[in-house]
Amino acid sequence: MGSKSVEDMIEASSGVHFSGFHMEGFVPRNIEKLTTSRGGDSVHKQPFVIGVAGGAASGKTTVCDMIIQQLHDQRVVLVNQDSFYHNLTEEELARVHEYNFDHPDAFDTEKLLDSMENLRHDRAVDIPNYDFRSYKNNVFAARRVNPSDVIILEGILIFHDPRVRELMNMKIFVDTDADVRLARRIRRDTVEKGRDIGAVLDQYSKFVKPAFDDFILPTKKYADIIIPRGGDNHVAIDLIVQHIRTKLGQHELCKIYPNLYVIQSTFQIRGMHTLIRDSQTTKHDFVFYADRLIRLVVEHGLGHLPFTEKQVITPTGSVYTG
């Protein structure tokens, strides 16, 4: 390998490296990059984005509220996709009952992306306050949303556009029975929006259900977590909040140390961690499992080193490329 040591090669190829186990007193050489002014593109400005999707009246807002309530030690903001409906033209207003509010084209996705990018880069944004009676987003004053540690993006079609999906660190799909969603929608639209029950049912059969089957349900496959029964599933939400806290802990470390990679936890890794921390574990087993953990760390670390493909011909004439 020449006169350079392994440590020198690693240092030259990718800057500061460390295991993450002993960081006391450690100051990264590139700390200047991590303390840029507001509005900069530094790594530590990136928030943790959680997407919550599901059918209309599935309980998405309830799930978001419960998550926000339990994440009381974090700065959390909620962004609703409903805020980004297009303003209806005069012609569309004249035939509003024929307008499909559950179609992807009903939303101003470009404006949503622009708002999310601003929040992710530590810039406050004004979120429209859509009026469902006049079908306009300029009737009420916009809502000022400041950058936060956690952004929850909620909406029926937030998983539909791949550009929006790419912004998310975690994707949650709220899965609620169709009959329950219909009952909730009737109650909400008649009481809160002052609509006629006949018009609500007509809109549901013409647009809501077909759009759910065509556009919303297929995005369920992109979800990292699926919550049956929505806000009524307290056990699932508690587990999700615990998972978010764990992810946030890893996310905070990765924001502070840009070249830190967290190895995904598996049952095998957790089992070996349990064994080496057990005071009853024998010296032989401790060395054995500690060695296996170290091997996994080294293998994962090598995967992040720069490389070039090489072709090798074995003595038997076989050709390997890698």
TrEMBL record:
<comment type="similarity">
    <text>Belongs to the uridine kinase family.</text>
</comment>
<dbReference type="InterPro" id="IPR029057">
    <property type="entry name" value="PRTase-like"/>
</dbReference>
<keyword id="KW-0511">Multifunctional enzyme</keyword>
<feature type="domain" description="Phosphoribosyltransferase">
    <location>
        <begin position="265"/>
        <end position="322"/>
    </location>
</feature>
<dbReference type="InterPro" id="IPR027417">
    <property type="entry name" value="P-loop_NTPase"/>
</dbReference>
<keyword id="KW-0342">GTP-binding</keyword>
<comment type="pathway">
    <text>Pyrimidine metabolism; UMP biosynthesis via salvage pathway; UMP from uridine: step 1/1.</text>
</comment>
<dbReference type="GO" id="GO:0005524">
    <property type="term" value="F:ATP binding"/>
</dbReference>
<dbReference type="GO" id="GO:0005525">
    <property type="term" value="F:GTP binding"/>
</dbReference>
<keyword id="KW-0547">Nucleotide-binding</keyword>
<comment type="pathway">
    <text>Pyrimidine metabolism; CTP biosynthesis via salvage pathway; CTP from cytidine: step 1/3.</text>
</comment>
<keyword id="KW-0418">Kinase</keyword>
<dbReference type="InterPro" id="IPR006083">
    <property type="entry name" value="PRK/URK"/>
</dbReference>
<dbReference type="GO" id="GO:0008655">
    <property type="term" value="P:pyrimidine-containing compound salvage"/>
</dbReference>
<keyword id="KW-0021">Allosteric enzyme</keyword>
<dbReference type="GO" id="GO:0004849">
    <property type="term" value="F:uridine kinase activity"/>
</dbReference>
<dbReference type="Pfam" id="PF14681">
    <property type="entry name" value="UPRTase"/>
</dbReference>
<feature type="domain" description="Phosphoribulokinase/uridine kinase">
    <location>
        <begin position="49"/>
        <end position="235"/>
    </location>
</feature>
<dbReference type="Pfam" id="PF00485">
    <property type="entry name" value="PRK"/>
</dbReference>
<dbReference type="InterPro" id="IPR000764">
    <property type="entry name" value="Uridine_kinase-like"/>
</dbReference>
<comment type="similarity">
    <text>In the N-terminal section; belongs to the uridine kinase family.</text>
</comment>
<protein>
    <recommendedName>
        <fullName>Uridine kinase</fullName>
        <ecNumber>2.7.1.48</ecNumber>
    </recommendedName>
</protein>
<keyword id="KW-0067">ATP-binding</keyword>
<keyword id="KW-0808">Transferase</keyword>
<dbReference type="InterPro" id="IPR000836">
    <property type="entry name" value="PRTase_dom"/>
</dbReference>
